[in-house]
Specification:
Number of strands: 10
Distance between the termini: 27 Å
Radius of gyration: 19 Å
Number of domains: 1
Structural class: alpha/beta
Helix content: 25-40%
Largest sheet: 6 strands, parallel
CATH class: Alpha Beta
């Protein structure tokens, strides 16, 4: 019997590759979940991306109650974590200490991957929800250090992560909300940024985002059209990011990560375009 010509042929290689030398993406989960849950939620993306990147899943430093959206499926995946405060009951913390804890948590995940055999360059950040907010904030923090070095004719200062030579080329922002967090208050003074120690929800936005808080690093924004936070996702895209360096993928879903192939393929293709635009070679699976 002749094969069904209408059935699409998968471009995903049948064997799982050795990712030891692949370029690395640090993956930052949302609030009230953890790295293991984010990895499980991203399974459809991983099927494609594992053939081009080594994905490293970081756990946030602060414990919290589980997010209500995940209790039914991932209620046994404790402990649950957060990067930033978003509820009044989250303990107050000094901004400097919060930044140090975030940096140490990321450093821990990155050095652990070195020990597990990862040798590729750290090229990108991928975050969902609060992790997307943090990813964009990290890109802005790097941008601020680079701009300062250029103005002063000096070397770029070390980042909060404390690992030399890390240069984030792009960010994959899945359901990322405005505002961005200030992860380097010694350099960044913009009122459009929320202090890392403050509540990230209910922020009183200033009338206009100034140039200091405008991110011009390449970013992909993935928006679910049924997401209750869509207006804040759009605010991040249109007001905090330079439109010449952004890509938008919209899909008919709520506050979650796409899993259906028709949605996943569009996101993955956009990730490949984003990475290639910054000089990263990829194996296209869509």
């Amino acid at each position: 019997m002749a094969p069904n010509s209408s059935q699409p042929v998968s471009k995903i290689p049948s064997t799982k590759p050795c990712t030891e030398h692949f370029p690395r993406i640090l993956c930052l989960h949302g609030g009230g979940v953890n790295a293991a849950i984010f990895e499980a939620q991203s399974r459809s993306l991983i099927r494609h991306l594992q053939h081009s990147f080594r994905l490293v899943w970081a756990d946030a430093p602060f414990f919290c109650d589980p997010h209500s959206d995940i209790i039914g499926v991932y209620g046994d995946y404790a402990p649950f974590r957060r990067w930033l405060r978003w509820l009044p009951e989250h303990p107050e913390i000094d901004a400097e200490i919060c930044i140090e804890e975030i940096g140490y948590a990321m450093q821990t995940a990155m050095k652990e991957d070195d020990r597990e055999g990862g040798k590729g360059e750290w090229v990108g950040l991928m975050g969902f929800s609060q992790g997307a907010k943090l990813s964009a904030s990290l890109l802005l923090e790097q941008q601020a250090r680079e701009d300062k070095a250029k103005r002063e004719g000096t070397e770029v200062e070390p980042s909060l992560i404390g690992i030399k030579g890390v240069n984030w080329r792009f960010g994959i922002l899945l359901a990322g909300r405005a505002p961005l967090s200030n992860l380097n208050p010694e350099i960044l003074k913009s009122e459009a940024l929320v202090s890392a120690g403050n509540l990230s929800e209910g922020f009183q936005f200033c009338k206009e985002v100034d140039g200091e808080a405008m991110l011009n690093k390449p970013t992909l924004h993935v928006h679910g059209m049924a997401d209750a936070g869509l207006h804040l996702h759009r605010k991040l895209l249109h007001e905090y990011c330079d439109k010449g360096n952004t890509t938008l993928v919209e899909w008919e879903g709520a506050h979650r990560i796409p899993i259906k192939s028709m949605d996943v393929d569009r996101v993955v293709e956009a990730i490949y375009d984003l990475a290639q635009g910054t000089g990263v070679e990829v194996v296209r699976t869509v």
